[in-house]
Write a structure and sequence with these properties.
Blueprint lengths: L1 E2 H12 L6 H13 L3 H5 L3 E2 L3 H15 L4 H5 L1 E4 L2 E4 L9 H14 L6 E5 L5 H9 L4 E6 L2 H14 L4 E4 L14 E4 L4 E2 L8 H4 L8 E2 L6 H13 L5 E5 L5 H10 L3 E7 L5 E7 L5
Parallel strand pairs: 5-6, 5-8, 6-7, 8-11, 9-10
Antiparallel strand pairs: 1-2, 3-4, 11-13, 12-13
């Protein structure tokens, strides 16, 4: 039987080529595989290490050393307090997306039944969190990738909520419902020229289909989704976007050109302009 302290130090030493993140990743890995807490390591608690878990630990270390994201190695991640399955078919949810979801929840939680559409849903983290937090709402979500929708459906079952998933190309297909109260989207928004600045764990493993847009038309998803929202949203309905801070004002201008009112771009907790919102006019 081993103890937690030496086991942690062994994993940490193996992960040391990863630099500053090695310590945290070692803790997370031990917690996920062996249910070992930081306090267990401090107290050097006795640990059972069956052969199958020892093998999983070693395989996980090897994958991490290839810069594969920990969330893919573990197969899950936390978002807004819920556990979501993630695979390389979907993006790993980011904290700024949680902030966008929180804004929607706080604004609409007192409204009762809402029809909500999430475009480019990926893992379903936005749609399904809204289903949990706004239980009176009816949720639809679309994505072009059948592999992503399969992950989203697994997450729907995992969270035990109702949501309708539809395979659709946001650039070509109309919304699958008329008169939604809320449309939200975290579409691809990373310019291809920005790829050289990205970390290898993102560039080599996360789905490029969900990440990149051409430099010469970085707003193509916003243009298509906002244009459809301008037609389909219920009068007085809200449109929400996660955005690239590099063209925050361009997204806002696009929404104003489509006659959305009260358009504003908003900072995340890092002070970066990462959200945009607006209301479809209530007038006919």
């Amino acid at each position: 039987m081993q103890t937690a302290g030496p086991l942690y130090r062994n994993i940490y030493q193996q992960l040391s080529p990863l630099g500053e993140s090695a310590s945290q990743q070692a803790y997370w890995l031990l917690e996920a595989v062996l249910d070992i807490s930081l306090m267990d390591v401090v107290l050097d608690k006795a640990v059972k290490l069956p052969p199958e878990k020892e093998a999983r630990l070693q395989q996980s270390v090897e994958r991490l050393l290839q810069h594969e994201p920990l969330q893919y190695v573990l197969g899950e991640t936390s978002f807004y307090g819920y556990s979501f399955l993630v695979t390389p078919a979907v993006l790993i949810p980011r904290p700024e997306t949680e902030e966008l979801v929180h804004r929607i929840v706080e604004r609409h939680k007192a409204q009762g039944q809402l029809n909500i559409l999430d475009v480019c849903t990926g893992s379903g983290c936005i749609a399904l969190t809204l289903a949990k937090e706004l239980p009176a709402g009816k949720i639809w979500a679309t994505d072009i990738s059948p592999e992503a929708l399969a992950v989203a459906e697994q997450n729907r079952q995992r969270l035990e909520v109702e949501a309708q998933f539809v395979e659709a190309d946001a650039l070509k297909h109309p919304f699958p419902l008329t008169a939604p109260d809320v449309v939200v989207s975290n579409p691809p928004y990373v310019r291809q020229s920005e790829a050289r600045q990205m970390q290898p764990n993102v560039l080599s493993f996360e789905p490029h289909l969900a990440l990149f847009v051409p430099d010469e038309d970085a707003l193509l998803f916003y243009r298509a989704i906002a244009g459809e929202a301008a037609k389909k949203l219920k009068p007085g309905g809200w449109l929400y976007f996660e955005i690239n801070e590099a063209y925050a004002e361009e997204v806002a201008s696009l929404m104003r050109e489509l006659d959305f009112e009260h358009v504003q771009v908003l900072p995340d907790m890092q002070g970066k302009m990462r959200m945009a919102e607006g209301i479809k006019p209530a007038r006919a």
